[in-house]
Design brief:
The chain has 367 residues and is an alpha/beta fold. Helix content is 29%, strand content 17%. The protein has a single domain, classed as Rossmann fold (3-Layer(aba) Sandwich), CATH 3.40.50. Strand 3, helix 2 and strand 4 form a beta-alpha-beta unit. The chain binds S-adenosylmethionine.
Length: 367
Amino acid sequence: MEEAPSYSPSDSPQAVPLPDSPAISNSSSPPAVDFLGPLDSDDDVDIEVDPALEDDFSDYESSGYDVSTASLSASIQEYVYENGRRYHRYFGADRNLMPTDEVEQDRLDVHHEAMTMILGGNLHKAPLDHPQRILDVGTGTGIWCVDMADTYPMAEVIGTDLSPIQPMWVPPNCKFEVDDAELDWTFNEDYFDFIHMRNLAQSVSNWSHLISSAFRCVKPGGYLELVELGQITYSDDDSMKDDNPIKIHFETTKKAMEKIGRPPQDTENMKRKLEEAGFIDVKVMRAKQPIGPWPKDKGLKRTGAMVLLACDTGFHAYGMAAFTRILGMSTEEADRVCREAVAACRNKNYHIYNYMHVAYGRKPENA
Ligand SMILES: C[S@@+](CC[C@H](N)C(=O)[O-])C[C@H]1O[C@@H](n2cnc3c(N)ncnc32)[C@H](O)[C@@H]1O
């Protein structure tokens, strides 16, 4: 096993501070957000808890809810094995603090379904009109690219990632490249109709550079869309107390990421970053992601069930390297925080959610 790299705040000179961070919020109600062009007007409505869950037990199974899961070159394949997980290290073991093994690939695919459901079955919010070239940066398993290639069969869809974990059998109009998106891009200027980046906050050290690269490579009139999960948990009915293990996990992850200058993103600072890079007509939205199948609404319940499934391994994926390498926790302590969060997700008395933040902007036609 390799020795883990150590961090200090000076390791990350390009930190992008959050306006409302880095303090860990103790509030269980969302802060007021000034929506500038919200796409969903009802996204702040309280999620009603399924009354069928109201019995004396804490687990979903007691209410009859089934939470079972039944349901390149050699050097590029360089890995670090740590805490029983496989991390990719070709571009440096600290570039992506999350594992890329099969367990993580399954989680990414499940979570893709949940996030697609949150967007009402859509793969994007930017208003695309017969796009010809589409890029997904940090594509993970490439599942978004495959779905986009099916949705837009006339478009060429390219996915890039640090790790070669994408499938071989994909639609003919879809391909993948191994690349570090934080280095200078080799794509031609004014090339893509649409560039998409989802859940990269824990990896990105210099957003301005990344978004400027995208601005250069998107066509005039084309769009960049950012999608990020918020790192603050909420409950509308006070079912989440300050010592809730899910809340503790989210806060600990946020603390670690802020320490290395990779803070979580939200609609406000994503909008600002897009505008600073030159994008116009920036639109934002945020939608609640229920953690568990506790909502009464059928669609949200399905989404929450998918999220619950992803959480089975997600807390360890987000937490283990971050807690041990950045915060210096022992493996046992980090594992305990993750395991308690996994267990808490299965407690139907906790009606917790976080936000999925979306922002997109257009490159001016005369740029
Ligand atoms: C949390 S996963 C999200 C994957 C995918 N975007 C999704 O939403 O399903 C983050 C992915 O970004 C990739 N990544 C992180 N930093 C990157 C970089 N600098 N360049 C390219 N890919 C990167 C990681 O390898 C990982 O596959």
